[in-house]
Amino acid sequence: QVELVESGGGLVQPGGSLSLSCAASITGDFFVNAMGWYRQAPGKERELVAVIPHGASANYRDSVRGRFSVSRDKAKNTVSLQMNNLYPEDTAVYYCYAYISFGLGPHDYWGQGTQVTVSS
């Protein structure tokens, strides 16, 4: 069983900063292949923001590279996203993501989402 619980988010002015955190509660014999963040703006598809694969460097979408930083604690199964110099177009629901194997193959898991609004 997997539960991803997010915290953080809220309203911030353009140019401001926010931090998101996600803690994964996982039972059973598992392996976490990757953790990270996606987002979905109104009327748009869900898109990757930043993901850290196991044993590899983080991947960022081009529009956030240099402004956002993702970090992962493998021992605690947590992932965080530090967002700096936020733009109005960063406004979206942000979802914690985990790609987890339980022996038969990996599956996608999602948090409930947290709203980030960038507006003056």
Write structural notes for this entry.
The protein is an all-beta fold and 120 residues long. It contains no helices and eleven strands. The chain has strands at 2-8, 10-12, 18-26, 31-40, 47-53, 59-60, 68-73, 78-83, 92-101, 106-110, 114-118. Strands 2, 4, 5, 6, 9, 10 and 11 form a seven-stranded mixed β-sheet that branches. A four-stranded antiparallel β-sheet has the order 1-3-8-7, with no helix packed on it. The chain is elongated, with a radius of gyration of 14 Å. The N and C termini lie far apart (41 Å). The model has no long low-confidence stretch (mean pLDDT 95).
Provide a concise account of the structure shown.
The protein is mostly beta strands.
Helices and strands, with pairings:
Layout: E1 2-8, E2 10-12, E3 18-26, E4 31-40, E5 47-53, E6 59-60, E7 68-73, E8 78-83, E9 92-101, E10 106-110, E11 114-118
The H/E string reads EEEEEEEEEEE
Strand content range: over 45%
Write down the Rg.
14 Å
Shape: elongated
What assembly state would you assign to the polypeptide chains in this entry? single chain
The structure class reads mainly beta
**Alpha-carbon distance between the two ends:** 41 Å
Largest sheet: 7 strands, mixed
Helix content percent band: under 10%
Mean pLDDT score, rounded? 95
Overall number of strands: 11
pLDDT under 50 segments (min length 5)?
Answer: none
Key terms:
4-stranded antiparallel β-sheet, 120 residues, 0% helix, mainly beta, 7-stranded mixed β-sheet, 11 strands, single chain
